[in-house]
Known about the structure:
- It is a single chain.
- By secondary structure, this protein is α/β, with parallel strands linked by helices.
- The protein has one domain: Ribonuclease Z/Hydroxyacylglutathione hydrolase-like (Metallo-beta-lactamase, Chain A).
- It is built from 9 helices and 14 strands.
- A 7-stranded mixed sheet has the order 6-5-4-3-2-1-14, with helices on one face. It has a 7-stranded mixed sheet with strand order 7-8-9-10-11-12-13.
- The termini are close together.
- About 45% of the residues are buried.
- The mean pLDDT is about 95.
Amino acid sequence: xxxxxxxxxxxxxxxxxxxxxxVRIGEGEKRSSVLLDCGFTAPPPxxxxxxxxxxxxxxxxSHFHGDHFFGxxxxxxxxxxxGRKKPLLITGQxxxxxxxxxxxxxxxxxVRGKIxxxxxxxxxEPDHAVEAVGLTWSTALNGHSQRDLAVRIERKGKAVFYSxxxxxxxxxxxxxxxxxxxxxxxSRLDQEIPNHGNIMKCIEFxxxxxxxxxxxxxLQRDERRNRRDEILKIIGGIQDLRVFMPEPGxxxxx
Length: 254
């Protein structure tokens, strides 16, 4: 699996695009590409990275806050303008189809009727693993102000966990066990904020899950800016787990 952090920011960061991660698997005709979340500032870095309108196979939406799915109307409209032909799968919790189509109707009312490619939807609820676009998908309920599902995607013994937003739970811990990479929202370094993770708790979570590495994303903008050196010193001193704070465009492979 090849992972690219297109955006790593929170909802209202003036410098960093919303957290959005691209995962690629396979090669040649068996290659597929998945986008994890697509907030309102996520499309431009996606277009810069993937100009081919037929490159993307699936989008995962963790929950229905704007910084996690309001970029989809722009993405679909540009796919239409660019002549996309390949089907596109949009996955998430129950209600994902209604939420996406409502957002598209509000943003660009006439586009839905013009889209020539097959727009497919798939709800992936906890306790029901699903096979799609060459991956096994499993989910668990995270601790957030709006219902948020963490997701685990795996193929041939390699697995990535993505939290969306929210506090770790016992269910997400079980979902994350043994993953090669945990990507977790961490709003602050050590302060406990309702409905959000923090760096220290996420490190504990990754250790308990026995993950190989942890990527910290979606940091609160002032925390990332004002405590950056302190954060890097702390995570740089961890020896038993690879912990990193990716910048936009960071790539990793597992």
